[in-house]
Amino acid sequence: MTVMRFWSPTRQDASDIDEGAEEIPAKSALVPADSVAGRSVVIVIAIMTFLAALAANVAILVADASVEWRSDIAREATVQVRPTAGRDIEADVLTAAEAMRRTPGVLEARIYAQSESEALLKPWLGEGLDLSELPTPRMIVLKLDAENRVDIDRLRVELERVVPNAVLDDHHVFIERLGDMARAAVATAALVFVLILAAMAVAVTSATRAAVATNREIVEVLHMVGAADAFIAREFQRRFMALGLRGALMGGGGAVAFFVLAQFLARRWRTTGGGEQMEAMFGDFSLGVSGFLAILLLSGGVAALTGYLSRYIVLRHLRRLG
């Protein structure tokens, strides 16, 4: 922090201060804005705001993607027709599919060919195995009507009646696991967000104490001649809020630029395997209105928090002097 020129208040100055003058003369500003320490505070706040914005928006993206995952999966169900001795599996598959198509709420029943059913097992069993000798179940994928919800229990009873060796899976277990995973990811991002804000608060507190120590003589003289504590604290609050707002806007702008770049790269990598997995996890990295609003609120909150912390630290120091 730049060393201040010491200001010796006159009787008239003390009278002005006692009346709650709005500003100290420029030559004796308590907290110079353009200084090495001030620029350091701006940089720290910018970095912390950037990281906090990333954590907050990752939580939003994962939560939104989770809703889409569960919505997509909830609109599907699968039927497994297991090979059974004495039964014609091809006839059972056709019978099960026809029974499903007649059920209200089922839009489509697509029968998987034998080769498609076997292909589903290759990621688990590996390549090069002859699956034709194994009793591979046949699959039927059902598309469910989102508006006219099907009665799953009734559907399961009807399926067991027409094809006893068929099993209906509505993916409710998988949906619950997806929800748990999404909630864990959001909770982790929220914890990171809180830790970043706590680290920023510690940095602002240290910077305020350093500013008070650097200008200790001026602060003590003002206090002794009767300047109101709120007046002195307000000078620190105003300066640090300005520094916090500058750093928050820089960090928030950097976060917006990051997500715009991530969205551009995600669109280019969409055709690759890794790109598809990233899109499934986070969507297309589009912030949307909620993302931009979160960054805007975060920037304003960081500036307000910086000002409040500086005011609180200065008031504590002045109370100790009293």
Provide structural commentary.
The chain has a 4-stranded antiparallel beta sheet with strand order 2-3-1-4. The chain is of the alpha+beta class. The chain has 2 domains: 11-70 and 176-321, no CATH class; 83-164, no CATH class. The two termini are 25 Å apart. The longest helix is centred in the middle third of the chain and has 43 residues, at 172-214. α6 (172-214) packs parallel to α10 (288-321). Helices cover 68% and strands 7% of the residues.
What's the count of strands? 4
Q: List low-confidence stretches.
A: 1-28
Instruction: Quote the distance from N terminus to C terminus.
Output: 25 Å
Which strand order spans the largest sheet, edge to edge or round the barrel? Answer: 2-3-1-4
Tell me the strand percentage band.
5-15%
Form type: rod-shaped
Average pLDDT reading = 78
Features:
322 residues; alpha+beta; 2 domains; four-stranded antiparallel beta sheet; 10 helices; 68% helix; 7% strand; disordered N terminus
Write the layout of secondary structure elements.
Layout: H1 11-18, H2 36-74, E1 76-81, H3 89-101, E2 106-111, H4 114-125, E3 138-144, H5 152-162, E4 166-169, H6 172-214, H7 216-224, H8 229-268, H9 273-282, H10 288-321
Helix pairs in contact: 2-6, 2-8, 2-10, 3-5, 6-10, 8-10
Short summary of the structure?
This protein has 322 residues and is of the alpha+beta class. 68% of the residues lie in helices and 7% in strands.
